[in-house]
Amino acid sequence: MQDNDRFTTLGRLEDLPQAYREELTQLNLVPLWPSLRAVLPPHVPARRTQATHWSYRKLRPLLLQAGELTPIEKAERRVLVLANPGHGLEKMQASAAMYLGMQLLLPGEWAPSHRHTPNAVRMVVEGEGAWTTVGGEKCPMSRGDLILTPTGLWHEHGHDGKEPVVWLDVLDLPLVYYMEASYHVDGERQTVVPGRGDRAYARGGLVPTPVFARGDKAYPMLRYPWADARASLLALAADRPELEAVQLTYTNPETGADAQNILGFYALMLRPGQSLRLPARSPAMVFHQIEGRTSVAIGEQSFTIEAADTCCAPGYTAATLKNLSADQPAFVFIADESPLHRKLGVFENRG
Ligand code: 1HN
After folding, report:
1. Is residue 8's pLDDT more than 80?
2. pLDDT value at position 213?
3. Other C-beta atoms within 10 Å of 126: how many?
4. 3-state secondary structure of 166
5. Which residues does a 6 A CB cutoff place in the pocket of ligand 1?
Protein backbone atom coordinates (compact mmCIF):
# COMPACT_ATOMS: atom_id res chain seq x y z
CA MET A 1 0.00 0.00 0.00
CA GLN A 2 1.34 3.41 -0.97
CA ASP A 3 1.66 6.08 1.67
CA ASN A 4 -0.84 8.38 0.01
CA ASP A 5 -3.44 5.60 -0.36
CA ARG A 6 -3.30 4.76 3.31
CA PHE A 7 -5.81 7.29 4.54
CA THR A 8 -8.17 7.61 1.55
CA THR A 9 -11.02 5.67 3.15
CA LEU A 10 -11.77 7.31 6.44
CA GLY A 11 -14.04 6.08 9.19
CA ARG A 12 -17.76 6.84 8.84
CA LEU A 13 -20.12 8.22 11.44
CA GLU A 14 -22.02 4.90 11.35
CA ASP A 15 -18.82 3.09 12.41
CA LEU A 16 -19.07 4.73 15.82
CA PRO A 17 -21.23 3.31 18.62
CA GLN A 18 -24.59 5.07 18.93
CA ALA A 19 -24.04 5.84 22.62
CA TYR A 20 -20.68 7.47 21.87
CA ARG A 21 -22.22 9.63 19.12
CA GLU A 22 -25.03 10.72 21.41
CA GLU A 23 -22.57 11.67 24.13
CA LEU A 24 -20.62 13.81 21.64
CA THR A 25 -23.80 15.54 20.48
CA GLN A 26 -24.80 16.28 24.07
CA LEU A 27 -21.52 18.13 24.52
CA ASN A 28 -21.65 19.94 21.13
CA LEU A 29 -18.79 17.84 19.80
CA VAL A 30 -18.39 16.39 16.29
CA PRO A 31 -15.79 13.92 14.99
CA LEU A 32 -13.89 15.45 12.08
CA TRP A 33 -12.84 12.33 10.13
CA PRO A 34 -16.27 11.38 8.68
CA SER A 35 -16.52 14.89 7.14
CA LEU A 36 -12.88 15.61 6.39
CA ARG A 37 -13.05 14.70 2.68
CA ALA A 38 -16.21 16.74 2.19
CA VAL A 39 -14.72 19.95 3.55
CA LEU A 40 -11.30 19.31 2.00
CA PRO A 41 -11.78 17.38 -1.25
CA PRO A 42 -8.71 16.29 -3.22
CA HIS A 43 -7.17 18.83 -5.66
CA VAL A 44 -10.35 20.73 -6.65
CA PRO A 45 -12.84 22.38 -4.29
CA ALA A 46 -16.49 21.35 -4.20
CA ARG A 47 -18.53 24.12 -5.88
CA ARG A 48 -22.25 24.67 -5.65
CA THR A 49 -22.05 27.39 -8.32
CA GLN A 50 -23.38 26.03 -11.63
CA ALA A 51 -22.83 27.61 -15.02
CA THR A 52 -26.17 29.41 -15.41
CA HIS A 53 -27.67 31.66 -18.09
CA TRP A 54 -30.39 34.29 -17.55
CA SER A 55 -32.04 35.49 -20.77
CA TYR A 56 -33.08 39.14 -20.69
CA ARG A 57 -35.71 38.54 -23.38
CA LYS A 58 -37.36 35.99 -21.06
CA LEU A 59 -37.03 37.83 -17.77
CA ARG A 60 -37.95 41.33 -19.02
CA PRO A 61 -41.75 40.73 -19.32
CA LEU A 62 -41.77 39.26 -15.79
CA LEU A 63 -39.88 42.25 -14.43
CA LEU A 64 -42.32 44.66 -16.11
CA GLN A 65 -45.16 42.58 -14.67
CA ALA A 66 -43.62 43.06 -11.22
CA GLY A 67 -44.03 46.79 -11.93
CA GLU A 68 -47.80 46.24 -12.24
CA LEU A 69 -48.11 43.76 -9.38
CA THR A 70 -46.02 45.50 -6.75
CA PRO A 71 -45.86 49.26 -6.19
CA ILE A 72 -42.43 50.62 -5.30
CA GLU A 73 -43.68 51.44 -1.77
CA LYS A 74 -44.26 47.71 -1.24
CA ALA A 75 -40.90 46.69 -2.64
CA GLU A 76 -38.43 49.48 -1.76
CA ARG A 77 -36.21 47.85 -4.41
CA ARG A 78 -38.20 46.11 -7.18
CA VAL A 79 -35.84 43.33 -8.13
CA LEU A 80 -35.94 39.87 -9.67
CA VAL A 81 -32.92 38.04 -8.30
CA LEU A 82 -30.77 36.01 -10.72
CA ALA A 83 -30.38 32.99 -8.47
CA ASN A 84 -28.05 30.08 -9.13
CA PRO A 85 -29.96 26.78 -8.79
CA GLY A 86 -26.80 25.09 -7.53
CA HIS A 87 -26.98 27.15 -4.34
CA GLY A 88 -30.78 26.75 -4.03
CA LEU A 89 -32.89 29.62 -5.38
CA GLU A 90 -33.86 30.79 -1.88
CA LYS A 91 -30.22 31.61 -1.11
CA MET A 92 -30.32 34.36 -3.76
CA GLN A 93 -26.71 33.71 -4.76
CA ALA A 94 -25.11 33.74 -8.21
CA SER A 95 -21.89 32.34 -6.73
CA ALA A 96 -20.30 32.00 -3.30
CA ALA A 97 -19.69 35.74 -3.01
CA MET A 98 -21.85 37.32 -5.74
CA TYR A 99 -25.50 38.38 -5.77
CA LEU A 100 -27.16 39.48 -9.04
CA GLY A 101 -30.53 41.15 -9.52
CA MET A 102 -32.43 42.95 -12.26
CA GLN A 103 -34.03 46.09 -10.83
CA LEU A 104 -36.95 48.00 -12.37
CA LEU A 105 -37.70 51.67 -11.72
CA LEU A 106 -40.73 53.23 -13.43
CA PRO A 107 -41.03 56.92 -14.40
CA GLY A 108 -41.67 59.11 -11.36
CA GLU A 109 -40.73 56.40 -8.85
CA TRP A 110 -38.27 56.87 -6.03
CA ALA A 111 -36.37 54.11 -4.21
CA PRO A 112 -35.61 55.71 -0.82
CA SER A 113 -32.21 56.44 0.63
CA HIS A 114 -30.43 53.82 2.66
CA ARG A 115 -26.94 52.56 3.34
CA HIS A 116 -25.67 49.06 4.06
CA THR A 117 -22.54 47.06 4.65
CA PRO A 118 -22.53 45.00 1.41
CA ASN A 119 -20.97 46.77 -1.59
CA ALA A 120 -23.13 47.18 -4.70
CA VAL A 121 -22.67 48.25 -8.29
CA ARG A 122 -25.31 48.96 -10.95
CA MET A 123 -24.79 48.15 -14.62
CA VAL A 124 -27.48 50.04 -16.53
CA VAL A 125 -29.40 47.77 -18.93
CA GLU A 126 -32.07 49.97 -20.54
CA GLY A 127 -33.93 53.27 -20.31
CA GLU A 128 -32.97 56.91 -19.89
CA GLY A 129 -33.76 59.52 -17.27
CA ALA A 130 -33.03 57.61 -14.04
CA TRP A 131 -30.36 58.61 -11.57
CA THR A 132 -28.74 57.24 -8.45
CA THR A 133 -27.50 59.60 -5.77
CA VAL A 134 -24.53 58.09 -3.91
CA GLY A 135 -23.00 59.95 -0.98
CA GLY A 136 -24.60 63.16 -2.27
CA GLU A 137 -23.30 62.73 -5.85
CA LYS A 138 -26.14 62.51 -8.38
CA CYS A 139 -25.15 59.97 -11.05
CA PRO A 140 -27.15 59.88 -14.30
CA MET A 141 -27.88 56.36 -15.56
CA SER A 142 -27.48 55.37 -19.23
CA ARG A 143 -27.05 51.98 -20.87
CA GLY A 144 -23.70 50.43 -19.96
CA ASP A 145 -22.79 52.94 -17.23
CA LEU A 146 -21.30 51.39 -14.11
CA ILE A 147 -22.26 53.11 -10.86
CA LEU A 148 -20.71 52.15 -7.53
CA THR A 149 -22.49 52.18 -4.21
CA PRO A 150 -19.65 51.11 -1.94
CA THR A 151 -20.11 49.89 1.62
CA GLY A 152 -21.59 52.46 3.98
CA LEU A 153 -22.49 55.14 1.41
CA TRP A 154 -26.06 56.50 1.29
CA HIS A 155 -27.81 55.73 -1.99
CA GLU A 156 -31.26 56.30 -3.51
CA HIS A 157 -32.68 55.95 -7.02
CA GLY A 158 -35.08 58.26 -8.88
CA HIS A 159 -36.49 58.47 -12.38
CA ASP A 160 -37.42 61.65 -14.31
CA GLY A 161 -37.73 59.92 -17.71
CA LYS A 162 -40.65 58.44 -19.62
CA GLU A 163 -39.76 54.75 -20.11
CA PRO A 164 -39.02 51.99 -17.60
CA VAL A 165 -35.38 51.84 -16.49
CA VAL A 166 -33.71 48.52 -15.71
CA TRP A 167 -30.30 47.85 -14.28
CA LEU A 168 -28.26 44.87 -13.11
CA ASP A 169 -27.28 44.99 -9.44
CA VAL A 170 -24.09 43.15 -8.44
CA LEU A 171 -23.46 42.85 -4.70
CA ASP A 172 -21.09 40.95 -2.44
CA LEU A 173 -24.13 40.26 -0.23
CA PRO A 174 -23.67 36.44 0.05
CA LEU A 175 -20.20 36.90 1.50
CA VAL A 176 -21.08 39.77 3.83
CA TYR A 177 -24.19 37.91 4.99
CA TYR A 178 -22.13 34.74 5.61
CA MET A 179 -19.78 36.87 7.70
CA GLU A 180 -22.81 37.95 9.80
CA ALA A 181 -21.94 41.51 8.87
CA SER A 182 -24.91 42.42 6.65
CA TYR A 183 -27.27 45.17 7.81
CA HIS A 184 -28.86 48.40 6.51
CA VAL A 185 -29.88 51.81 7.85
CA ASP A 186 -32.74 53.90 6.40
CA GLY A 187 -32.12 57.57 5.72
CA GLU A 188 -33.63 60.85 4.55
CA ARG A 189 -33.64 62.09 0.96
CA GLN A 190 -30.07 63.19 0.29
CA THR A 191 -28.99 66.73 -0.45
CA VAL A 192 -27.12 66.69 -3.73
CA VAL A 193 -23.64 68.20 -3.37
CA PRO A 194 -21.48 69.56 -6.20
CA GLY A 195 -18.61 67.47 -7.61
CA ARG A 196 -18.72 64.59 -10.06
CA GLY A 197 -16.01 61.92 -10.10
CA ASP A 198 -16.73 61.05 -13.73
CA ARG A 199 -15.71 64.62 -14.64
CA ALA A 200 -12.82 65.01 -12.19
CA TYR A 201 -11.27 61.70 -13.32
CA ALA A 202 -12.33 61.86 -16.98
CA ARG A 203 -8.84 61.03 -18.36
CA GLY A 204 -6.78 58.03 -17.35
CA GLY A 205 -3.49 59.01 -15.74
CA LEU A 206 -4.58 62.51 -14.77
CA VAL A 207 -5.85 62.97 -11.24
CA PRO A 208 -6.91 66.15 -9.47
CA THR A 209 -4.12 67.41 -7.19
CA PRO A 210 -5.22 69.83 -4.48
CA VAL A 211 -2.31 71.94 -3.28
CA PHE A 212 -3.24 72.05 0.38
CA ALA A 213 -5.06 68.82 1.19
CA ARG A 214 -5.32 65.44 -0.41
CA GLY A 215 -8.80 64.29 -1.49
CA ASP A 216 -10.32 62.42 1.42
CA LYS A 217 -12.83 60.23 -0.40
CA ALA A 218 -12.20 56.48 -0.21
CA TYR A 219 -14.26 56.11 -3.40
CA PRO A 220 -13.54 59.21 -5.50
CA MET A 221 -15.13 57.89 -8.71
CA LEU A 222 -18.67 56.52 -8.47
CA ARG A 223 -19.83 56.61 -12.10
CA TYR A 224 -17.95 55.07 -15.03
CA PRO A 225 -19.78 56.18 -18.19
CA TRP A 226 -20.10 53.50 -20.84
CA ALA A 227 -19.26 56.01 -23.57
CA ASP A 228 -15.77 56.37 -22.01
CA ALA A 229 -15.21 52.65 -21.38
CA ARG A 230 -16.32 51.79 -24.93
CA ALA A 231 -14.11 54.47 -26.49
CA SER A 232 -11.13 53.25 -24.40
CA LEU A 233 -11.66 49.66 -25.52
CA LEU A 234 -11.86 50.65 -29.20
CA ALA A 235 -8.74 52.84 -28.84
CA LEU A 236 -6.85 50.02 -27.09
CA ALA A 237 -7.86 47.51 -29.76
CA ALA A 238 -6.71 49.86 -32.53
CA ASP A 239 -3.44 50.71 -30.76
CA ARG A 240 -2.53 47.10 -29.94
CA PRO A 241 -3.61 44.84 -32.85
CA GLU A 242 -1.58 41.98 -31.34
CA LEU A 243 -3.28 42.20 -27.94
CA GLU A 244 -5.22 39.02 -27.20
CA ALA A 245 -7.51 40.31 -24.47
CA VAL A 246 -8.82 43.83 -25.00
CA GLN A 247 -9.91 44.32 -21.43
CA LEU A 248 -10.15 47.18 -18.93
CA THR A 249 -10.43 47.01 -15.15
CA TYR A 250 -12.67 49.47 -13.34
CA THR A 251 -10.27 50.98 -10.82
CA ASN A 252 -10.14 53.56 -8.08
CA PRO A 253 -8.34 56.38 -9.95
CA GLU A 254 -6.57 57.60 -6.80
CA THR A 255 -5.05 54.25 -5.82
CA GLY A 256 -5.07 52.23 -9.04
CA ALA A 257 -6.57 49.35 -7.02
CA ASP A 258 -9.84 47.61 -7.89
CA ALA A 259 -12.85 49.94 -7.71
CA GLN A 260 -14.25 48.01 -4.71
CA ASN A 261 -12.72 45.75 -2.06
CA ILE A 262 -14.39 42.40 -2.62
CA LEU A 263 -15.60 42.05 -6.22
CA GLY A 264 -13.73 43.04 -9.40
CA PHE A 265 -15.29 44.69 -12.47
CA TYR A 266 -14.02 44.66 -16.05
CA ALA A 267 -15.06 45.65 -19.57
CA LEU A 268 -14.01 43.25 -22.32
CA MET A 269 -14.09 43.80 -26.07
CA LEU A 270 -14.03 40.83 -28.42
CA ARG A 271 -12.87 41.72 -31.90
CA PRO A 272 -15.10 40.62 -34.79
CA GLY A 273 -15.07 36.81 -34.85
CA GLN A 274 -12.61 36.63 -31.94
CA SER A 275 -12.48 33.60 -29.67
CA LEU A 276 -10.85 34.16 -26.28
CA ARG A 277 -10.04 31.46 -23.72
CA LEU A 278 -10.12 32.68 -20.14
CA PRO A 279 -7.93 30.45 -17.96
CA ALA A 280 -9.24 28.39 -15.06
CA ARG A 281 -8.84 30.71 -12.06
CA SER A 282 -10.12 30.25 -8.53
CA PRO A 283 -12.77 33.05 -8.54
CA ALA A 284 -16.24 32.63 -10.01
CA MET A 285 -17.16 35.01 -12.85
CA VAL A 286 -20.23 36.76 -14.23
CA PHE A 287 -20.61 37.82 -17.86
CA HIS A 288 -23.16 40.43 -18.96
CA GLN A 289 -23.48 41.21 -22.66
CA ILE A 290 -23.54 44.97 -23.34
CA GLU A 291 -23.43 44.85 -27.14
CA GLY A 292 -23.41 42.03 -29.69
CA ARG A 293 -23.73 38.26 -29.23
CA THR A 294 -21.20 35.99 -27.59
CA SER A 295 -21.07 32.23 -27.22
CA VAL A 296 -19.76 31.25 -23.81
CA ALA A 297 -18.41 27.73 -23.19
CA ILE A 298 -17.91 26.94 -19.50
CA GLY A 299 -16.59 23.44 -18.89
CA GLU A 300 -19.14 21.12 -20.53
CA GLN A 301 -21.85 23.81 -20.76
CA SER A 302 -22.36 26.45 -23.41
CA PHE A 303 -24.72 29.39 -23.89
CA THR A 304 -25.23 32.20 -26.34
CA ILE A 305 -25.53 35.50 -24.52
CA GLU A 306 -27.45 38.17 -26.43
CA ALA A 307 -27.47 41.86 -25.54
CA ALA A 308 -28.53 42.29 -21.86
CA ASP A 309 -28.18 38.55 -21.08
CA THR A 310 -26.17 37.48 -18.05
CA CYS A 311 -24.43 34.20 -17.17
CA CYS A 312 -22.11 32.95 -14.47
CA ALA A 313 -19.24 30.49 -14.31
CA PRO A 314 -17.94 28.64 -11.24
CA GLY A 315 -14.32 29.10 -10.15
CA TYR A 316 -11.47 26.75 -11.20
CA THR A 317 -13.14 26.41 -14.63
CA ALA A 318 -11.88 27.75 -17.96
CA ALA A 319 -14.33 29.69 -20.13
CA THR A 320 -14.11 30.36 -23.85
CA LEU A 321 -15.91 33.43 -25.21
CA LYS A 322 -16.54 33.82 -28.94
CA ASN A 323 -17.88 36.92 -30.65
CA LEU A 324 -20.58 35.59 -33.00
CA SER A 325 -20.37 38.62 -35.30
CA ALA A 326 -17.81 38.55 -38.13
CA ASP A 327 -17.82 42.31 -38.63
CA GLN A 328 -18.74 44.03 -35.32
CA PRO A 329 -17.00 44.02 -31.95
CA ALA A 330 -18.80 42.51 -28.95
CA PHE A 331 -18.70 44.17 -25.53
CA VAL A 332 -19.00 42.19 -22.29
CA PHE A 333 -19.15 43.45 -18.70
CA ILE A 334 -17.47 41.05 -16.28
CA ALA A 335 -17.73 40.80 -12.50
CA ASP A 336 -15.60 38.38 -10.48
CA GLU A 337 -14.35 37.48 -7.02
CA SER A 338 -10.65 38.19 -7.75
CA PRO A 339 -10.06 41.04 -5.25
CA LEU A 340 -11.46 38.81 -2.49
CA HIS A 341 -9.37 35.77 -3.50
CA ARG A 342 -6.18 37.85 -3.82
CA LYS A 343 -6.66 39.57 -0.47
CA LEU A 344 -7.30 36.25 1.24
CA GLY A 345 -4.28 34.65 -0.44
CA VAL A 346 -6.31 31.85 -2.08
CA PHE A 347 -6.18 33.20 -5.66
CA GLU A 348 -5.02 30.60 -8.21
CA ASN A 349 -4.57 30.65 -11.94
CA ARG A 350 -4.45 27.07 -13.22
CA GLY A 351 -4.14 28.07 -16.87
C1 1HN B 1 -30.03 47.20 -2.43
O2 1HN B 1 -29.84 48.11 -1.47
C3 1HN B 1 -30.31 47.61 -3.73
O4 1HN B 1 -30.04 49.92 -3.24
C5 1HN B 1 -30.49 46.67 -4.70
O6 1HN B 1 -30.81 49.37 -5.16
C7 1HN B 1 -30.43 45.34 -4.43
C8 1HN B 1 -30.13 43.55 -2.84
C9 1HN B 1 -29.92 43.14 -1.59
C10 1HN B 1 -29.70 44.03 -0.57
C11 1HN B 1 -29.73 45.38 -0.83
C12 1HN B 1 -30.39 49.07 -4.06
C13 1HN B 1 -30.19 44.90 -3.13
C14 1HN B 1 -29.97 45.83 -2.12
Report:
1. no
2. 75
3. 16
4. strand
5. 77, 79, 101, 103, 111, 116, 120, 155, 169, 171, 173
